[in-house]
Amino acid sequence: MPKEAPTPFFDTVAPRKYLLPAEIELLMNHARKHSRYGHRDATMILITYRHGFRASEVCGLEWSMIELDQGKLHVRRRKNGSPSTHTLQGDEIRALRKLRRDNPNASHVFLTERDGPFTTVGFNKLISRLGAKAALPFAIHPHMLRHACGYALANAGHDTRALAHWLGHKNMSNTMIYTQLSADRFKNFWK
Questions:
Q1: Of 86, 143, 158, 165, which is the active-site residue?
Q2: What is the pLDDT of residues 71-114, one digit of tens each?
Q3: How far, in whole angstroms, is CA 115 from its chain's centroid?
Q4: 33 catalytic, yes or no?
Q5: Which fold has domain 17-180?
Q6: Which of 108, 49, 78, 58 is nearest to 169 (CA)?
Q7: Among this protein's residues, is 77 annotated catalytic?
């Protein structure tokens, strides 16, 4: 019997390292409709994506870092990143208020069914499972939400320095990848 050739490495990895906005929306909708804790899961995806969180940052998010009445989120970055204050959008505020009503005495925003803070391993499993069930064309992981944030903001025309501050990068070279691959980077060069 002939031996099968091994699958080349490039055929086993995702075609890109980020999700498109439509894929984020699909993931959130699938979480809302098919997940046991749909609102929590969809909100966790939304907050991770909009604020470019790492898995450890969203899992460590505490209510003391959020000012719902002012629409502000005090971001503590991991990996020696720069802290900052982000503005929350209306849909984020509404989603977070519902979570707060459901768990008024919790210190962490995103809780497991045992009322403990989410772990990065648990979040990774959640995202992987939701991606597979939502029939995304490749396997996904939480860091793809952070990359999706960077690409979405770069494609919206935000400058590299502002993007670096939003993502907490101290070194601009970490941010350059988002602007280098922006689809509209050269769109208006000759206008």
A1: 143
A2: 999 999 998 888 999 999 999 999 999 999 999 999 999 999 99
A3: 22
A4: no
A5: hpI Integrase; Chain A (1.10.443)
A6: 78
A7: no
Average pLDDT, the chain: 87
User: What residues have CB less than 8 Å from 55, skipping those under 6 apart?
Assistant: 48, 120, 123, 124, 142, 143
Q: Establish whether 54 is a catalytic residue.
A: yes
Give yes or no: 178 in active site. Answer: yes
| Cβ atoms of 186 and 86 closer than 8 Å | no
Tokens 């899961």 correspond to: 41
Reduced to 3 states (helix: H, G, I; strand: E, B; else coil), residue 29 is helix
Angle (CA) 9 11 14, round 5°: 100
Q: Is 169 a catalytic residue?
A: yes
pLDDT confidence of residue 74: 96
Map out the domains of the chain as residue ranges: 17-180
pTM: 0.86
* Candidate list 30, 50, 54, 77, residue with the active-site label: 54
Query: Among all chains, which residue has been given the structure tokens 């501050």?
Result: 165
> How big is the chain by its Cα radius of gyration, in Å?
18
Taking a C-beta distance cutoff of 8 angstroms, is the pair 149, 51 a contact?
yes
Two tokens, residue 171: 């070194």
